[in-house]
């Protein structure tokens, strides 16, 4: 696996990780955990995935590792380009808060940007934190007047933690939703819930 770019992300900054999902999936996630794309496709669920992106991920393999679709993925911060593309659905979405202990699970990998993007580097976790750019991973925005620079900032803003097969339920801390009307859906699934306007760009 490659390392290299970035100025490093201090592990103390990683107080939680995020997974974006439709609220209809919460009960299943609490029961089974966050599953890899390969595993979840055989189960009833509401997908919010971008099929064009999934086509790129489908046959891409992590160097010396598994296919991307064989990992469960989490973001460092869900206020990212994927969430921005789903703003019209934000009342239906939930962001799962995940304990940072997943960084130490065997076989876990860190990508320095969107795992599907060309040029993204992968490294074993937690050592891979050193190749991330902390400011860009947690940036409020990724805009830039230069088109190539904007693409690079968007890529880095979607850095991922890839866990083989699934993220077990015991690593799930709770969930965030866009407004108070969505709180009962999280609580009905047995999750601690809170409104987090920031992560939903409000």
TrEMBL record:
It catalyses: a thymidine in DNA + NAD(+) = an N-(ADP-alpha-D-ribosyl)-thymidine in DNA + nicotinamide + H(+). The active site is at 57 (proton acceptor), 160. One of its GO terms (molecular function) is nucleotidyltransferase activity. Residues 15-202 form the DarT domain. NAD(+) binds at residues 19-21, 57. The keyword Zinc does not apply. Keywords: DNA-binding, Glycosyltransferase, Nucleotidyltransferase, Toxin-antitoxin system, Transferase. Belongs to the DarT ADP-ribosyltransferase family. This is DUF4433 domain-containing protein. It comes from Spongiactinospora rosea.
């Amino acid at each position: 696996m490659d390392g290299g770019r970035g100025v490093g992300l201090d592990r103390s900054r990683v107080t939680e990780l995020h997974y974006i999902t439709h609220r209809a999936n919460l009960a299943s996630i609490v029961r089974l955990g966050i599953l890899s794309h390969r595993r979840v496709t055989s189960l009833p669920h509401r997908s919010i995935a971008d099929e064009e992106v999934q086509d790129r991920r489908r046959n891409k393999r992590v160097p010396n590792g598994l296919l991307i679709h064989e990992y469960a993925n989490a973001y460092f911060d869900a206020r990212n380009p994927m969430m921005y593309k789903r703003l019209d659905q934000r009342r239906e979405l939930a962001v799962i808060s995940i304990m940072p202990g997943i960084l130490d699970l065997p076989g876990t990998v860190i990508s320095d940007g969107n795992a599907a993007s060309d040029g993204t580097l992968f490294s074993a976790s937690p050592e891979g934190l050193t190749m991330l750019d902390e400011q860009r991973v947690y940036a409020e925005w990724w805009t830039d007047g230069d088109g190539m620079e904007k693409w690079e900032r968007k890529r880095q803003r979607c850095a991922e933690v890839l866990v083989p097969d699934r993220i077990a339920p015991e690593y799930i801390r709770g969930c965030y939703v866009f407004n108070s009307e969505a709180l009962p859906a999280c609580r009905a699934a047995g999750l601690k819930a809170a409104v987090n306007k920031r992560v939903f760009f409000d």
